[in-house]
Amino acid sequence: MVLAQANLRLDANAIDYLLLAFYFTLVLGIGYLAKRQVSTSLDFFLSGRSLPAWVTGLAFISANLGAIEVMGMSANGAQYGMPTAHYFWVGAIPAMLFLGIVMMPFYYGSKVRSVPEFMLRRFGKPAHLVNGISFATAQILIAGANLFLLAKIVNVLLGWPIWLAIILAAVVVLTYTALGGLSAAIYNEVLQFFVIVAALVPLTIVGLVKVGGWQGLVDKIGLAPGSQPDVNSWPGTNITGFGSPFWSVVGLVFGLGFVLSFGYWTTNFVEVQRAMASKSMSAARRTPIIGAFPKMFVPFIVIIPGMIAAVTVTELMGANRTALVGDKSAPSGATFNDALLLLMRDLLPNGMLGVALAGLLASFMAGMAANLSSFNTVFSYDIWQSYIKKDRPDDYYLKLGRWVTAGGTILAIGTAFIASTYANLMDYLQQLFSFFNAPLFATFILGMFWKRMTATAGWTGLVSGTLAAVGVFLLSETGAIDLPGQGASFVGAGAAFVVDIVVSVAVTYATAPKPEAQLVGLVYSLTPKETRQHSTTGEDAGWYRNPALLAGIVLAITIILNIIF
To answer: Which of 248, 363, 423, 498 is placed for a possible disulfide with 240 were both Cys, Cβ 3.0 to 4.6 Å?
Structure first.
C-alpha cells in the first residue's frame, strides 16, 4: 500500500501551494465579512431572504457540485462511461425545472424556514419529526463522504495521514460556515463554482488532445480489452446492472429520472434552502432554472475526464480495472475515486495543477458547507426549537446554530470513515438517496396534490417507504438478489416510492383528513392561483426573467443533448 500511495503523490511545487494558500485566505475572508451581516437567526439560516436570483442560482448548482459530484461522477465516468450523464440530463434537469415552476411557490409563499417545516404544516408533528431526523442523518452521512474525498486530496498532495487530513479539512469549513452562516456558504459557493470550472475545463481539453479528441477517445475505448466505459449514454445497461436494454431504460427513467431525481431535487433542503434565500418569489422560482443551464454541461468536465483516465492512467487499466470492476482491490492500490487525481498528476503542469487542486478543494467545501448549513437549520428549527427548547429569544437560536454547526462537523468526521469503505462513492450516495429522498418525494407529491391525504398517512408512508428501500439494500448485500452497478439503489428507490404510495393511500382511507381551511397554501387545488404566480414588475420584469420561458429553453437543450449522446 505504501507503493500505491507513492504512485498517487502529485508533484506540486511552491507555485501550487501559493495558489492554494491564496484560495483558503479568500474563503475565510468571505466568511469573516459575511459575519458582519448576521444579526438574527433568519440572517444566519436563510440570509434574510435578500439575495438576487443569479447568486442563488449559481449557489444552487455549486452546492450540488461538491467533491462527491466532481470526483464521484469522474469515478462513474471511468467505470461506466457516458451513461453517467443520465445523472444530469435525466436525473436532475427535469426535477430542477419542476421545483422552480411548481413547488417553489409553495415553499417560498408559505414562508417556511425548511422543508420539514412544510411537512409540519401539511401533516403535523409525527411526519415533521420523522423527516427532520432522517434529513439530519442523511446530511451528516453525505458531509462525511465530502470530507473523506477532501482528505484524499490532502493525502495525495502532502502525504498526511487520512485521519489528520479529515480533521484539518473539517476545521476550515466549520470556521467560515459558523462565522457567516448561509450567506458565507452561498457567496463562497458562487466563488467555488467559477474555481471548479476554471480547474476542470483545462484538464478536459488537455486530456482530449492527448487521446486525439472525442473520436480518439472512442477508438481507444473500443480497442481496450475487457469491460470498458460505454461511449453511448443509452441504454446504460452497465450502470443499471440490468441485462435487458428495455429494463435498463425503464430503470433509468423511472428509478433515476423520476423517483431518485424528483426525490432529491424537490425535497432536499440543501438545494431548496438556496432558493428560499432569494429576495422575491420570482427570484426563488428562477433559482433552480438558472442553475439548470450550467448543470447541463457539467458532464463534459467531470465524466469525460474519468473516461480519459480509464484508457490513459496505468493504475486504472488492465488487471487493475478487471479487479475494480469485480469489486476487488486493484494491484496498484488505486480505485475509481482516484481517476481525476491520477489524470491531474499525469497531464497538468505546475501552476495549472495548483488551480486544479484549488478546484477540487472548492468542490469539497461547497458540498460540505451546503450539508452543514442545511443540517444546522433543520436541527435548530425543526428538532431543537420544536421539541426540546421552545420560545427562547432569537439570539439563543443564533448561538445554537453555530454550536450545531460544530457538532455536525464532528459527526461528519466519524461518518467519513464509513464513506472510505466504498471504491465508488456514487454507489454509496445513490443508496442514501434511495433511503431518504425517494419515500419523501412520494409523501410530498401525494400531499401536495391530494387534499384527502391525512396526517397519519404522512408519517406511516415515510417510514414504510424507507424500510422498503433498506430491505432491497439488505437483499442485494446478502446476495439474495443480484443487482450489480447501481441497480440496487434504482430498485430500492422504486420500492420505496411504490410502498410509500400504497401505505399512504390505505392509511388515508382509514383515518380522518384535515379541514380544507387548514390546507390553503399547502395543497395545489386549494391555493389561489394569484399566490402561485411570480411578479412581472420592477426587478422581476422582462421576458428573460420569465421562469416558464427559461425552463422551456433548458428542456429543449437537454432533449437535444440526449439525442446527440
So the answer is: 248
Cα 203 to Cα 302: distance, rounded to the nearest angstrom: 10
| 510 CB burial (10 A radius; 0-12, 13-18, 19+) | exposed
Cell numbers standing for residue 180? 457567516
**Contacts for 412 with CB less than 8 Å, ≥ 6 apart:** 140, 143, 144, 146, 147, 170, 368, 371, 372
Give the pLDDT confidence of 200-240 residue by residue, as tens digits: 888 898 888 888 888 888 888 776 665 666 767 677 676 66
Q: Helical H runs in 313-351? A: 319-325, 339-347
230 pairs with which residues across the strands?
81
Cell numbers of 137, please?
A: 442523518
Q: What is the DSSP string of 153-165?
A: HHHHHH---HHHH
Report residue 130 as a C-alpha cell: 420523522
- Amino acid (1-letter code) at residue 515: P
Domain of residue 170, CATH code = 1.20.1730.10
Q: Report how far residue 458's alpha carbon sits from residue 443's, in angstroms, rounded to the nearest whole number.
A: 6
Cross-strand bridge partners of residue 51: 278
Dihedral over alpha carbons 411, 486, 484, 259 (to 10 degrees) = 110
CA 203 to chain CA centroid, nearest Å: 23
Eight-class DSSP state of 318: T
- Reference 31, options 189, 194, 191, 185; nearest CA is 185
Q: Tell me the pLDDT tens digit for each residue of 507-543.
A: 999 998 888 888 887 887 777 766 555 555 556 556 6
Q: How many domains does the chain have?
A: 1
Angstrom distance (rounded) from CA 282 to CA 101: 10
Look up the domain containing 318 and give its range: 3-564
Give the DSSP H/E element, type plus range, for residue 88: helix 86-89
pTM, rounded to two decimals: 0.73
